[in-house]
Design a protein that fits this description.
Structural class: alpha/beta
Oligomer: single chain
CATH topology of the largest domain: Dihydrodipicolinate Reductase, domain 2
Distance between the termini: 35 Å
Number of domains: 2
Helix content: 25-40%
CATH architecture of the largest domain: 2-Layer Sandwich
Radius of gyration: 22 Å
Largest sheet: 9 strands, mixed
Strand content: 25-35%
Length: about 375
C-alpha cells in the first residue's frame, strides 16, 4: 500500500528537520510502516510551496523525486491521499479548505488558527466533509514524557499536587554580527500571527490535558521583553508580539500547573524544557529525554539555617528512570499513527477539534493578560 503525501510549506527548519527528514523520509528509508507480515504502508512525498528554487534544493538534497509549486495540481492527483501543512498559521485555513474540497486526509501543524472560532470552523469543515484529520501534538511522545506517563499510570506519585514547567532559551536578536538571528521575524510580529502565547499554550493544552487532566481555567501574563530585533534582511523592526509568557492553570481535578515560556532566558537546567511534578508519594523532574524521581521514602528532611553551608546535596537523592525500550522520534511516532488511521481506519483522537482546544487556551491566555483576571475554559462542540 502506497500513500502519496503532499508536504506543504516544509522548507522551514521544523518542517524540514522533523516532518520531512526525521519522519516521512525515515519511514521511507526503514521500508515503510509494517502493518502485517509482508505488508507495509509506503510513503511517496511531494513537496509543495511557493519557492521553486528552495523546493528543488530540498528535493535534491534528500532524494525526494516529486516537488511542485502547483498545489492545485498536486491536490487534483488521486495518488496523493494525504495533505500536510506546515506553512504559517495565517495561511493555514486557506490551504486546509482547498485540501478538504479535494477530499484529502488533513494533517497539520499547530496552531490550527489564531482564533478559536476559526479553529472550530476548520474542524467542523473536516468533520462534515468526512475526511480524516489530525493535528501535530508531538510532545506526547517525547521520551521523558512517556517515562512520566508510565509512572503516573503505575501510581508512583500518589495524588499529584502540582506541576511546574520551564521552557525557553535565549534567542539572539541579531544586533551582533557574530550572533545571527535564530527564529523567523514573523514570530515576533502579532500582525503576522506571532507570539509565544499562541505558539506554546497550544502545546501546554494537549500536554496537560492528556497527562494530568483537563484544564479548567487559566491566569496568564505576557510580555514583550525585547522591543526590537533584526529581520532576515538585516534591518531592525519593532516587536509587537509577546516573547515571554507566565501562566498558571487550574485543572478540573485540583492539580495546579505553572508554566513559564520565554525566548529571553538563559538555561541552567537539564534541558530546554523541564517539568517538576510533585505528588503525595513521590516527585519527578522531567526533560525531553530524561526523567528523575524521588519517592516519599527517600525524601530528605531539610532544616532552614542560612548561617551554615547547606549540608544536603539535593541532587544526589534522585534516581534516573532507565530506558525500558527503544524510543523513536516523537514526530515520526505520531506520523505513523496518523498514516495507520488513514490507511487502516485505526483510532486517532488527535483531530482538528483537539487542535482547537489549544487555540482556545491561547486565546484565553491573551484575554487573561489583557483583562488581568482568571479565565474559565468552556467546552467545544
Amino acid at each position: 500500500m502506497k500513500l502519496g503525501i503532499i508536504l506543504n510549506g516544509v522548507t522551514g527548519r521544523m518542517g524540514t528537520n522533523q516532518h520531512l527528514v526525521r519522519s516521512i523520509l525515515a519511514i521511507r528509508d526503514q521500508g515503510g510502516i509494517r502493518i502485517a507480515p509482508g505488508e507495509t504502508i509506503q510513503v511517496d512525498p511531494i513537496l509543495t510551496g511557493r519557492n521553486g528554487h528552495k523546493l528543488r534544493e530540498l528535493a535534491t538534497k534528500y532524494g525526494v523525486e516529486r516537488y511542485s509549486t502547483d498545489l492545485d495540481a498536486a491536490l487534483a492527483d488521486p495518488h496523493n491521499q494525504v495533505f500536510f501543512d506546515a506553512s504559517s498559521t495565517l495561511h493555514r485555513a486557506g490551504f486546509i479548505e482547498r485540501a478538504v474540497k479535494a477530499g484529502k486526509a488533513i494533517y497539520c501543524e499547530k496552531p490550527t488558527a489564531v482564533e478559536t472560532g476559526e479553529a472550530i470552523r476548520l474542524a467542523r469543515l473536516c468533520r462534515e466533509a468526512g475526511v480524516k484529520n489530525g493535528v501535530v501534538q508531538d510532545k506526547l511522545w517525547l521520551t521523558g514524557i512517556r517515562k512520566l506517563k508510565l509512572l503516573i499510570d503505575q501510581g508512583f506519585f500518589g495524588r499529584i499536587l502540582s506541576v511546574r514547567g520551564e521552557f525557553g532559551y535565549w534567542v539572539f536578536t541579531g544586533h551582533d554580527a557574530d550572533q545571527p538571528i535564530q527564529r523567523p521575524s514573523w514570530n515576533y510580529r502579532k500582525e503576522d500571527g506571532g507570539g509565544i502565547i499562541i505558539d506554546m499554550l497550544c502545546h501546554w493544552r494537549y500536554l496537560i490535558d492528556h497527562t494530568f487532566g483537563p484544564i479548567k481555567s487559566v491566569s496568564c501574563l505576557g510580555a514583550v521583553h525585547i522591543p526590537e530585533r533584526i529581520d532576515e534582511a538585516g534591518k531592525p523592526y519593532a516587536c509587537t508580539a509577546d516573547d515571554s509568557c507566565y501562566a498558571t492553570f487550574e485543572l478540573e481535578n485540583g492539580i495546579v500547573c505553572q508554566f513559564n515560556s520565554s525566548w529571553d532566558v538563559r538555561v541552567r537546567r537539564d534541558d530546554l524544557f523541564t517539568m517538576n511534578v510533585d505528588g503525595t508519594h513521590g516527585s519527578a523532574v522531567v526533560g525531553l529525554r530524561q526523567c528523575r524521581v524521588q519517592s516519599l521514602g527517600t525524601t530528605p528532611k531539610p532544616i532552614w539555617n542560612p548561617d551554615i553551608p547547606q549540608p544536603i546535596d539535593f541532587y544526589e537523592g534522585w534516581q534516573e528512570v532507565p530506558d525500558a525500550c527503544a524510543y523513536d522520534n516523537a514526530f515520526k511516532i505520531q506520523w505513523e499513527l496518523f498514516l495507520r488511521h488513514v490507511a487502516l481506519d485505526e483510532p486517532f483522537p488527535y483531530d482538528l477539534m483537539e487542535g482547537a482546544k489549544g487555540v482556545q487556551l491561547a486565546e484565553a491566555g491573551l484575554q487573561s493578560w489583557a483583562e488581568r483576571r482568571w479565565i474559565d475554559l468552556g467546552t467545544l462542540d
